[in-house]
Amino acid sequence: MNTVVYPGSFDPVTVGHMDLIRRAAGIFDHVVVGVLINSEKKTPLFSLEERVIMLKDACGDLSNVSIESFDGLLIDFVRDKGSNTIIRGLRELMDFEMELQMAQVNRLASGGIETIFLPTDPRYSNVSSSVVREYARYKVALPEFVPENVLRAMEKKGIVKSTKQED
Ligand code: PNS
């Protein structure tokens, strides 16, 4: 079975991540979404458990996608999953510089784990979790950037003001 690992912080998962997961699920037999446990991001919007639940919810219709958390080195997690391939999205040149370095180091350190890049759909090229978090600091939601279940979770937690129309 051809398994690919899609790693990330997913704090929170965005429509750009979802697009990549769907496309990866169409290419590979199995996609393991790996949610990083010890993110260096100082104040996460959502706990690890919440991020995993929201991803599971958003990927509910994708039978060949599973969501797991991981700690430590990505290459060890990839090996644990019986995979030798990582997938990452590329939105812009700045992404490429970082991602290229990460892919090269991961390949060298693992003795061959490959990274495949998918160019982001242009509709999502300016979508990022960090922008969602930045707006949330001011209680402002970006409904176009996140799946419906994430938006509702942000409202429920009081992270952002409700976007629902009052009757
Ligand atoms: O969504 P992000 O924050 O851009 O994802 C970054 C991630 C999780 C892919 C990266 O930080 C990672 O792989 N962390 C695990 C630790 C590791 O293996 N570091 C070496 C990378 S060269």
Mean pLDDT over all positions: 95
H-E string? EHEHEHEHEHH
Amino- and carboxy-terminal Cα gap: 51 Å
Structural class comes to: alpha/beta
The helix content is: 25-40%
The tally of beta strands, per DSSP, is 5
Q: Which range does the strand content fall in?
A: 15-25%
Tally of alpha and pi helices: 6
Query: What small molecules does this complex bind?
Result: 4'-phosphopantetheine
The poorly predicted ranges are none
Strand order across the largest sheet: 1-2-3
Instruction: Give the overall form.
Output: globular
Radius of gyration computed on alpha carbons: 16 Å
* Biggest sheet descriptor: 3 strands, parallel
Describe the structure.
- This protein is of the alpha/beta class and 167 residues long.
- It contains six helices and five strands; from the N terminus they run E-H-E-H-E-H-E-H-E-H-H.
- The chain has helices at 15-27, 48-58, 74-80, 93-110, 129-136, 148-156; strands at 3-8, 30-36, 65-70, 85-90, 114-119.
- A three-stranded parallel sheet has the order 1-2-3. Strands 4-5 form a two-stranded parallel sheet.
- The radius of gyration is 16 Å and the shape is globular.
- The model has no long low-confidence stretch (mean pLDDT 95).
- 4'-phosphopantetheine (PNS) binds at residues 7-9, 36, 73-74, 102, 105-106.
